[in-house]
Amino acid sequence: MTWSSALKQTARSGLTIERAKLTPVIAVRGAAGVALVIGVCLWRGSPALAVSSAFGAFASGLVTFQRSMRPRPVLALAVAGALAVSTFLGYLVAAHLPAFVVLLAGWTVLAGMAWAIGPVSGLAGTLTVAIMLVTVTLPTSVLEALQHAALIFCGGLVQAALILVFPVRPWGVQRDALADALAAEADYARRLRQDPVAPFDPAPLMDARLASAVTPRQARRRPVQLHGPRGLAERVRPVLASLADPVVGAPAEGPERDRARDLLQAAGTVLDAVAHAVRHDSPVRLPPEAMATLEVPASGPMLHGAARRSAYRLISLLADAVELTDEPVQATRPTTEAERGPGGREEGSHLLRPSVPRLVPVALRALHRETRWSSPIFRHALRVGTVAVCGYLLGAALPFGHGYWVPLTSVMVMRPDFGQTYARGVARFIGTLVGVTVSGGLLALAHPGPNVCAGLAVVFVFLMYLLMRTGVSVTSACVAGYVIFLLGIAGEGWTQTVEERVVLTLLGGLLAMLSYALFPAWETPRLRDRLAEWLTTNGRYALAVLDRYARPAEGRPRQVREALLDARAARAAWEESVARAEKEPVRHRGLSRTAATAAGAALATMGRVTMIMEAHLPGKDAEPSPGAAAFAAELRPALERAAHAVRERDRLDWSALRAVWERWDAESAGQGVALRAAGLLVDALDDLAAALSRGRGGHRRAVDGGAEGTIPPAQ
């Protein structure tokens, strides 16, 4: 993609305004927290203290709107504490330019590295830099600096208290995540009726797993409905795929296929009903038609072989899902020490999330992993630190005054990837232009006093909380109005603020964009590494399943589960890299968009057929499969060679693996789920080789492979 095309695409995405579900009650609660601290400080303190405390309440409230599974009060207090520390340190050295520049550089680099911990931590780190730049411009002494820092923390404390006193839909994030996963599976079941190898995106299941991790305190209060359905959703998905597959499950045509379609339709109805019950905390309501379909016909079973086993398993799982969900939401089982396990691992009935103190070593390990020159996070931290310092010095040198708007804009728009940085830069400038025009016009026409400015600031912060998910340009306009009216409380001139805000915001956005052009961290050259990692983790998942067929008595279900989770994580990393690379103005470096699409489809098919094998794992008393053992023995070294070949742009060769499968096929006379699925797996690996060598031809084969070929993402 050329630079002009990339800039047009990112600008268009940044200016896009989306329709989003509004949460007015939560927005009112957040704005009330800001109004409360402003009112108290104006009543008992000074305008400068009101501005400081309002920034703390605003930032703490902002973080609680992010998609995080941690308790909202904990987020508010953690961010408020970080804001208080950063502000106090800034006050101590604000009068000494060299010392403040050193502090700003170091703190900004640390804030940039916070993206290694997660997006919420990255946003919190960005806010600490922004608040440091704004609040230290308010004149004060060291003693008053402590007072400012304490008030900023009190702003977060007020937000946390309001969340506890006025809870809005407790466990709502967790309920939505689980309900989305169940609804996605319901849609998957219905799509399988028409397309037996329809794709399935595991992202909702990954989100549901993330949402199911709780602290020990949360585990004692979690509603019953959030206990079992997620695990059942994980087990339902491979059964649905196995029933619908024309090679392993019901035949492509005939009465058995009609019966499979009826079961899939009923499964979709049941899963939708369970999802609705979980989302709205209500009983499960099922139509009698779905219940009748899930009963064995009076004439006897209509399915045979593996399809019949899948049907019986599906009916049992759906019954369990209804039974586990259709209960009153009361207390839940307590969490014992045995269930907790080390490091928040999945033990017993809970996935435990480490508490805040235990999160410190986890965060330090994440920072250590990213402290390397090739890391996009590390390069982002260096980039944003350099830009913050340059922007601050540039703003100080310009004759406008209020030069902190330059680094403030740069820090707020910069992200570890090119697309978000450029999209946010354009959106922030346009939104700021609108915001300062509206708010500046109101100030110029009405000349409001401090109390009126405080009221207008609360109105703008309410609009920002309400419209947060509609787009960066909208929220930037609201934030611009909020900041201008907030500074108006302290007596800032409107003409100065408007003119400076527009010019200095433009300079800050240009600095951010220029920095990425001069010191990039492109995702495109890393695509082959991401693809090799996905191939490796998919291979480990396949080997873990094949080992269960080869040695049933030594089966370790946890090994299969962990391999599946690793494969999902690698797939998510690949898809994120592809999405970023598509927006970058660089050459494809040997992996074109067509080849990447086809390669991703091939590896997704590899995961799908492995999932089908997992759905039919033998019991511990089953006979070992020599064919599966031989296939796994050849697959293991072949995967190592293939991963190296993907990275080095060499040719992939799966002929030896196909020869082993053909011997297995001849010895078993084509019988067995594992044998047929292994054949599809070899086909998927051949499609991967074709995708990487021929690009467009591989893509055509991936799409048109039919029942025994490959499909789009379905792991």
TrEMBL record:
<feature type="transmembrane region" description="Helical">
    <location>
        <begin position="149"/>
        <end position="168"/>
    </location>
</feature>
<feature type="transmembrane region" description="Helical">
    <location>
        <begin position="425"/>
        <end position="445"/>
    </location>
</feature>
<dbReference type="InterPro" id="IPR049453">
    <property type="entry name" value="Memb_transporter_dom"/>
</dbReference>
<feature type="transmembrane region" description="Helical">
    <location>
        <begin position="502"/>
        <end position="522"/>
    </location>
</feature>
<feature type="transmembrane region" description="Helical">
    <location>
        <begin position="381"/>
        <end position="405"/>
    </location>
</feature>
<feature type="region of interest" description="Disordered">
    <location>
        <begin position="328"/>
        <end position="351"/>
    </location>
</feature>
<comment type="similarity">
    <text>Belongs to the YccS/YhfK family.</text>
</comment>
<keyword id="KW-0812">Transmembrane</keyword>
<feature type="transmembrane region" description="Helical">
    <location>
        <begin position="124"/>
        <end position="143"/>
    </location>
</feature>
<feature type="transmembrane region" description="Helical">
    <location>
        <begin position="46"/>
        <end position="65"/>
    </location>
</feature>
<feature type="domain" description="Integral membrane bound transporter">
    <location>
        <begin position="392"/>
        <end position="514"/>
    </location>
</feature>
<feature type="transmembrane region" description="Helical">
    <location>
        <begin position="474"/>
        <end position="490"/>
    </location>
</feature>
<dbReference type="Pfam" id="PF13515">
    <property type="entry name" value="FUSC_2"/>
</dbReference>
<feature type="compositionally biased region" description="Basic and acidic residues">
    <location>
        <begin position="336"/>
        <end position="350"/>
    </location>
</feature>
<feature type="transmembrane region" description="Helical">
    <location>
        <begin position="21"/>
        <end position="40"/>
    </location>
</feature>
<keyword id="KW-1003">Cell membrane</keyword>
<feature type="transmembrane region" description="Helical">
    <location>
        <begin position="74"/>
        <end position="93"/>
    </location>
</feature>
<protein>
    <recommendedName>
        <fullName>Integral membrane bound transporter domain-containing protein</fullName>
    </recommendedName>
</protein>
<feature type="region of interest" description="Disordered">
    <location>
        <begin position="696"/>
        <end position="715"/>
    </location>
</feature>
<dbReference type="GO" id="GO:0005886">
    <property type="term" value="C:plasma membrane"/>
</dbReference>
<keyword id="KW-1133">Transmembrane helix</keyword>
<keyword id="KW-0472">Membrane</keyword>
